[in-house]
Amino acid sequence: MYRGVLSVGGGDLPFGLELAREDDELVAYLINGPERVRASNVQLDDDRLAIQMPGYQHRLEARFADARFEGSLLLLRPRGVIKSLRFVGMPGQDWRFFPKPDAAPMDFSGRWALTFRGEDGGERAAIAELTQRGHEVEGTVLRASGDDRYIAGEARGDTLFLSRFDGGSAFLYLGRLRADGVLAGDFHTGGGAHETFSGRRDPRAKLEDPSRMTVLKPGFDRLKFAFPDLDGKSLAFPSERFDGKVVLITIGGSWCPNCHDEAVFLRELLASRRTRGLEVIQLMFEYTADFASASAAARNFAEKYSIDYPVLIAGTTTDDDVLKKLPQLQKFSAYPTLFVVDRKGAIRLMHPGFSGPATGRHHEEQNRELAALVDRLLDESA
Questions:
Q1: What is the C-alpha separation between 211 and 274, in angstroms, rounded?
Q2: Full-prediction pTM beyond 0.90?
Q3: pLDDT tens digit string along 217-259?
Q4: Is 84 in the same domain as 219?
Q5: 77 closest CA partner among 193, 195, 213
Q6: Distance, CA of 223 to CA of 346 (rounded, Å)
Q7: CATH number at residue 82
Q8: Are both 64 and 122 inside the same structural domain?
Q9: Is 301 a residue whose pLDDT tops 90?
Q10: How far apart are CA 174 and CA 179, in angstroms?
Q11: By the 8 A CB rule, do 216 and 225 touch?
């Protein structure tokens, strides 16, 4: 066991790291609360460690010296930029933020209605759902575009410390519970973003309607496109392959953590309903316009989840490329966004964002509702 620490704008961002041998193979586990993300592409040569993050293009490289690992986490960012974060791994430490817990911290459990404010003045509503056992705190932050996945940390006095690094994004939350009941603090990401947040407990808190995040142009009720697959072969929609089928078309990217959670759901849904006429198409908008790099990232993503449906390289995340490549759309602002298309080719639902398993009942309800809609459409005639 190691206590991994990344250096971000707000300070130390800790996460659990375990190195293990399984069937003579060296593997790593990234630990955040109840989640253990397994990485199998791990190399340890003498004193040098390298971990390729599963499903992502990020890579950790470190050297063991002075009884600890020291090195860098290399993050792929938009336009192919590589950002380096300092990494330290301390062996034998299973604590996250503090070696000695606070015996009587304040209670942060519950449902919090929060507002995140960016340095550009923009505001975003969110809901934090937290559980607390003694000083240990776990949970997630729900947003209209998805969720922040598994976050974990601890309470110390009136201050809350939470973090996450699961191979994808790196998040750090530092908040203080004021005497007036307001939780306020700072949110930092490994990519360099910084926001402040504040809010109160509210068991009835709701998010904005996500349907406003993706909008079709007036008069359009279907999609039309042709993009290359991972081998460069063009695939068009609509086409004979999809005639009379119910088709789920999702816009995502290998860099998107919520897209990873959605891929698990889509793979399982397709496996149980393919014989009834269900198809899935994944449109990937990656961080780089270079096809070789983009297809390598998307292939890594597809292999992680054993995806057996078409994965197409559609474009990049910059310069409103989604709107350029899919001119039927008037507005797009959430990765992933799922389009549910009926047997006649009409869009019956646009579902921006995806609530992953860290959201518990929200994830289960979402999956049940999407599966029920797909079943109804499969029962319709072409």
A1: 27
A2: yes
A3: 999 999 999 999 999 999 999 999 999 999 999 999 999 999 9
A4: no
A5: 193
A6: 8
A7: 2.40.128
A8: no
A9: yes
A10: 17
A11: no
